[in-house]
Amino acid sequence: MGAQFRVTRERGKVFRDVPWAAAFVATVHPSSILRMDADDRPAGIAGLVADLTVVAKLLK
Question: What gap in Å lies between CA 51 and CA 13, rounded to an integer?
Fold first, then answer.
């Protein structure tokens, strides 16, 4: 995606017609949630679930 791409800014968005796939959704790696402070972890999990919900809808 290039040097200007930021997962934190683009997560949950669907990108279509990229050279290597028909579409993809930017999201964080699940292990990053495990490294979060305990107070931040619920929001991290909610964000990942929201991203995966976008993926599920894309696959239907």
Answer: 8
Could you report the per-residue pLDDT of 9-25, keeping only the tens digit for each? 999 999 998 888 889 99
Query: Which residue range is the domain that position 50 belongs to?
Result: 7-59
d(CA 25, CA 58): 9
The pTM is what?
0.81
Residue 24, classed as helix, strand or coil, is strand
CA-to-CA separations, 56 to 2, 21, 22, 52, 59, in angstroms, rounded: 26, 16, 15, 6, 5
Q: Does residue 2 lie within any of the structural domains?
A: no
